[in-house]
Amino acid sequence: MTDLSKRSIVKMVALTAVAAAALVGCGKKEEAPKAEAPAAAKPEPLKIAFAYVGPVGDGGWTFAHDNGRKEIEKAFGDKVVTTFVEKVPESADAERVIRDMAAQGNKLIFGTTFGYMEPMLKVAADNKGVKFEHATGYKTAENMRTYDSRTYEGAYMAGVIAGKMTKTNTLGVVASIPIPEVVRNINSFTMGAQSVNPKIKTKVVWVNEWFNPPKETEAATSLINGGADVLMQNTDSSAVLQTAEKMGKRAFGWDSDMTAYGPKAHLGSAVINWGPYYVKAVGEALEGKWSTGSSWWGVKEGAIEMVNVAADVPEDTKKRIGEIQAGLKDGTFSIWKGPIVDQAGKEMLAKDAVADDKFLGGVMFYVKGVEGKIPGGK
C-alpha cells in the first residue's frame, strides 16, 4: 500500500470521528423508548338488588318486575350486577332481607310491594349511601323514593271489554289487600264496563293476600257461582284466569300477558311494563343524577297496555280500546272525570271535574254499581 493510500484511510477515519463528535454535540442521540401509561382501572359495576313479594314464576306481578330487572341488564351490560330475593313477606322479615341487601354492598335497592314501605324507611335511615326505590308506596326520604304504575288504566280498559262481553251483566273481581290502589282498580273496572253497559253490577271477593293461588281459585269459583261471567283480579297469580277457563267463563290477565294460562277464557291482559322506569332509575344512579321524589307512570309513559285482546271481542270495542289508549297517551281522555258518585249516590267528583293524583291516591269508596263493603271501611 502506498503512503498516499495510507494517508487517505487515516483521513477518512478522522473525518468520521469528527462527524460523530459533531452529532453528539448537537444532541443527536438515540432516545430510550417511553414506557406506556397504565390502563385506567375499570369502574366497579353498580350492585342492584330487588325484593319480590311473590315467586318470579307467578306469571303476574313479580314476573313483570323481573322482566324489568332483565331490561336493566340488557341496557347496561357489565356496568351493573343485579340480584333478587323472591317470596319476601310483608312483615318484619322484609326489614331483615332489605338490610342484608345493603350489607352485601348493593347501592340501589328496589322493594316491589306496598308492605315494604316502613321496613325500607328504617333501613334507608341507617344506610345513607344506598339509594332505595319503593313500589306503590307514598313515603319518601332523602335516599328513598317511590314509583308506581297506573294500573287503574288497564282495569278501565278491561272493564270496557267486559261490559260488552258479559251475558249476565254481572262482573266479578278477586281482590287482594283493601288499600286505595286495589279499590281504585275495582272502581275503574266497573266504570269502564258501565261506559258501554249501564246495567253492570260488580261483585268483589277479598282474599287479603297478594299471592295465594288456592284462595284466588276459591274466590273466583265463588264469584262465578254467584252469577259473574267475566272476572278480573288484583292478585298476582294466574289462578283466576285458570278457574274461568275450567268453568267456561271469561277473564283477564293481570300485570303480565297470561294468555297461555287460559286461552279460551282470556279476553285480554292488562300488563305493566316496568322496564322503562327501571332503566331510567339505574341510568340516573350511574350518572349521579338520582334524587328523591315520586313517579306514577301509565299508558303515557309506556308502562300500561292492554294486549292480546280476544278474537271474538267486537271490532268496535277493539277500536274503542285503541282510542282510550291514544287518549291516555296524549292527555285528551281522563278515566276519573265527574260526575262520579259512591254506592249511596253521594257525589264524590263533580260533573266535568278531573281527579288529580291526590284524589286518586285516597280512593277508599266503592262507586255506584259495586256491591258489598270494603273490609275495614264504613
Automatic annotation (TrEMBL):
The keyword Signal applies. One of its GO terms (cellular component) is plasma membrane. InterPro entries: ABC-Purine-Binding, PnrA-like, TAT_signal. Keywords: Signal. Residues 1-22 form the signal peptide. It comes from the Bacteria. Residues 47-321 form the ABC transporter substrate-binding protein PnrA-like domain. This is BMP family ABC transporter substrate-binding protein.
